[in-house]
């Protein structure tokens, strides 16, 4: 994996831009439908290790017509079992950095969102898809198994039976089906995924940092805990959040009618 480590410093693997408080990360292998090799995974690791303090949200998207077609299968040919285990765990560590990022991560999806690309999308907190997006897990037809955390993250979104069906039969879900079944939370018009993701990112970046932290870090643990443990964790998190100076300022602004009430859009 020495060559992969050196590839991580190749700036061409990711197209990174800053737009106000939003960091956009573009997977930049369009000729390969943004297939994921060690270099691009390690580049993501480096990027999520050093999110600048002024950044309040991150967007991951694909350069070209696709989000990601998954693992670059040419990388499988030279690995033995031990190397395969180490490789899978390397993906797990990188995707954990995305899932447990200190700021919200939004995936803007189009074209292929398959295999490892779907696993990457699952590590984000919000997924926005446009009509060209399609979701699949072709590992079953390739004689392999998911290795980027998909068996943990995807069933939490769509359920074990639906994921098993995808892997056993090669079923492909359209963007419309994906929005209905939990692959994505938003469905846009053609070309609208990245603009919508940017709109959402700007909105969530404006939240109180401690609230975002609670949603990203505490909420998943509360949901997995037994009810009484979850309720205690909720009470503790609510107490900490409400005691924050930013929360007090925002509540006072609402009570003083300086912020709008919630209304249907």
Short characterization:
With 265 residues, the chain is of the alpha/beta class.
Characterise the protein shown here.
With 265 residues, this protein is of the alpha/beta class. The protein folds into two domains: 2-205, Alpha-Beta Complex (2-enoyl-CoA Hydratase, Chain A, domain 1), CATH 3.90.226.10; 209-255, Lyase 2-enoyl-coa Hydratase, Chain  A, domain 2. It is 50% helix and 14% strand. The chain has helices at 2-7, 38-49, 81-99, 116-123, 139-142, 150-158, 160-169, 175-181, 193-205, 209-224, 227-243, 245-255; strands at residues 14-19, 22-27, 57-62, 105-109, 112-114, 126-129, 134-136, 173-174, 186-187. The strands form two sheets. Strands 1-2-3-4-6-9 form a six-stranded mixed sheet, sandwiched between helices.
Record the SSE blueprint.
Layout: H1 2-7, E1 14-19, E2 22-27, H2 38-49, E3 57-62, H3 81-99, E4 105-109, E5 112-114, H4 116-123, E6 126-129, E7 134-136, H5 139-142, H6 150-158, H7 160-169, E8 173-174, H8 175-181, E9 186-187, H9 193-205, H10 209-224, H11 227-243, H12 245-255
Parallel strand pairs: 2-3, 3-4, 4-6, 5-7, 6-9
Antiparallel strand pairs: 1-2, 7-8
Q: Work out the oligomeric state of the chains in this entry.
A: single chain
Strand content: 5-15%
Helix content: 40-55%
CATH fold node name of the largest domain: 2-enoyl-CoA Hydratase, Chain A, domain 1
Tally of discrete structural domains = 2
- Overall, the morphology is globular
> Any idea what the CATH superfamily of the largest domain is called?
2-enoyl-CoA Hydratase, Chain A, domain 1
Average pLDDT across residues? 89
Q: Could you give the count of β-strands?
A: 9
Question: CATH architecture of the largest domain, please?
Answer: Alpha-Beta Complex
With helices defined by DSSP (H or I, 4 residues minimum), what is the helix count? 12
Q: Specify the biggest β-sheet.
A: 6 strands, mixed
CA-CA gap between termini: 50 Å
Q: What is Rg?
A: 19 Å
